[in-house]
Amino acid sequence: MEKKLGQEPSDLVKVVLFGPESTGKTTISQQLARHYNTVWVPEYAREYLQNKWNNERKTCEPHDLLPIAEGQIRLENELTKKATDLLICDTDLLETKVYSEAYYIGHCDPILEKYALQNTYNLYFLTYIDTPWEADDLRDKPNEREQMFAYFKETLEKYDRNFVILKGDKAQRLSTAIEHIDKLL
C-alpha cells in the first residue's frame, strides 16, 4: 500500500494547482501544459467520485481516500515519464489531506498524511476564490469558500510549502503562473 503513494524519482520541475473547489485549477493546469508543451496530471478524485456518484448515488466516504490517493500518484508517476522539463499537477496528496480533514472532523489516514507531507513539488499555485462557483455533482461548499481558502493557505504555511496565490481573470492567472514557472526553469 505505502509504496503506491510515493513519487518516483524525477528531475522535472513540478508545480501543483492547489485550492478549494471551483477555483479554476483544471483550467490553469491545461493552459500551462499547452504553454509549456508538456503534460498535466488531472485530478483523479473527480473521475473516481463521479463514477461513484453515477453508479451508487454516493459521495466521498473516508474509505475512498486511499484509493483516490493511489490513483493520483499512479497518474502523476505515469505522466512524469511523458513530461518535458515541467509537470503540471491539477492536485496532490496534500490537497486530499486538506479535504479529508475538512470533511471528516480533522481526520486523515496516517498513511495518506505521511505521503502528503513526504512527496515534494517545486511550487504550489493557491487558487483564489475570485472565480464564480459552478455547481456540479461533486461540489458542495458554495457558502464555505472563504473558510476553505483560509484552510488551504494555512496548510501551505504550516508545512512551509513554496506558494504563490493566483488571482484575477484567466489571463492574469496564467501570466502570474508563467512568470513564476519561468524562474524555476
Broad shape: globular
Number of domains: 1
Low-confidence stretches: none
Number of helices, where a helix is a run of at least 4 consecutive DSSP H or I residues: 7
Per CATH, the class reads: Alpha Beta
In angstroms, what is the radius of gyration? 15 Å
SSE pattern? EHEHHEHHEHEH
Say which CATH homologous superfamily is assigned.
Answer: P-loop containing nucleotide triphosphate hydrolases
Helical fraction: 40-55%
- In total, the number of strands is 5
Structural class: alpha/beta
| Strand neighbour order, sheet with most strands | 2-3-1-4-5
Kindly report the CATH topology.
Rossmann fold
Keywords: Nucleotidyltransferase, Transferase
Organism: Flagellimonas aquimarina
Protein name: Nicotinate-nucleotide adenylyltransferase
GO molecular function: nucleotidyltransferase activity
List keywords for this structure.
5 strands, 185 residues, alpha/beta, single chain, Nicotinate-nucleotide adenylyltransferase, 5-stranded parallel β-sheet, nucleotidyltransferase
Describe the structure.
This protein is an alpha/beta fold and 185 residues long. The protein has a single domain (2-184), classed as P-loop containing nucleotide triphosphate hydrolases (Rossmann fold, 3-Layer(aba) Sandwich), CATH 3.40.50. Helix content is 49%, strand content 11%. The chain is built from 7 helices and 5 strands. It has helices at residues 25-36, 44-56, 65-80, 93-103, 110-118, 145-158, 170-184; strands at 13-18, 40-41, 86-89, 123-127, 163-166. Helix 6 (145-158) links the parallel strand 4 (123-127) and strand 5. The termini are far apart. The relative contact order is 0.22.
